[in-house]
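Lab notebook, bench 4. Still working through the backlog of constructs that have no structural model yet. Next entry is a single chain of 370 residues. Request: give me the structure tokens for it.
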Amino acid sequence: MWNRIRSLIIKELQIILRDRKTRIIIVIPPILQIFLFAFASTLEVKNITIGILNRDAGADSAPLIERFRNSPSFVRLDPVADEGEMRRYIDTQRGIGVICIREDFSRRLRGGEPAELLLALDGRRTNVAQIVNGYINTVVRDFNRDILAGRGAAGRPESELIVRNWYIPNLEYLYFTLPCLIANILMIMGIMIPALSVAREREFGTFDQILVSPLSTFEIIVGKTAPSLLIGFLQATMMIAAAIWCLGSPMVGSWLMLYTGMTVFIASVIGVGLFISSLCKTQQQAILGAFVFAVPAVLISGYATPIENMPHWLQTLSLANPVRWIMAIVKGVFLKDISWAIAWRSLYPLCLITAVTLGVAGWFFSRKLE
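Model written out:
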């Protein structure tokens, strides 16, 4: 049996690696994607452009405007003449919003009265608007604190919140993105390779030769899984190396834990790819089927939005998503040095998903054999 499996594995590797274009597809795209998506797929809000409608003729509005100009979050402050231009400014999306300083701003500050600011934000960009609102509130709060401090000790705040960020002290978003990208890119490649492999053999007519050979269903599944698993190891190693040594991502956990999780995860998505390939007759159908699975898997994995923010039925559905569990392991190993006890909480669902996907793929292949 093992000689037949070894022969099938060698045959699969020869088919995949003998084509120069296929070798390029296996090596180049994952590396390019890890570099490109690391900077493109960010949810950070930086380089903000905002308008300033300053109706105040006093001296106190200038320091406030200067604080916005010196803030690292804002790159440009555009002067706005009146409310009509403010409306056009937001409608044409020249900036995310406009800060309106009333004409009595300086007079009220000097008189010890509350001075109001109007902030008009572009509600079409809901997430960005909320984040920018927080940035602006921070600048205004610091401005108010300095004013209170200038009036004497009675105006000083009695308590101060000191924030310390664990695991990513400087809140470098790249360190969060890289482990997630490794999992997502590995998922796509892990599905595509086995799906295209079987579909290509169907097109060439060689798949029927496998079905009439002495190979059992188990031997076919192992022979199809092992080459994709080896290629997945290669791609994972290249992306991890690029993330650590080229992009500077921290790696504080266990390498054994990382590759154990990767092994089970790759096997689970290979099962999905084999299941898709068992339903498809052409490579075009296999590619379409892979993306039908990949896009929802990324969306409900917790990468773009927290799973806790999703409806309960989507949270339940995400339990069957292998990307959710491997992301927890990869982020835990890269950033937190999690223990095996914590990793097991994500590892055993991956084992169950792997058993189901490979089992279903094997059942479909056994039907073909019959």
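Notes after review: The first strand starts at residue 48 and ends at 54. Strands lie at 48-54, 74-79, 97-101, 117-121. Flag for follow-up if needed.
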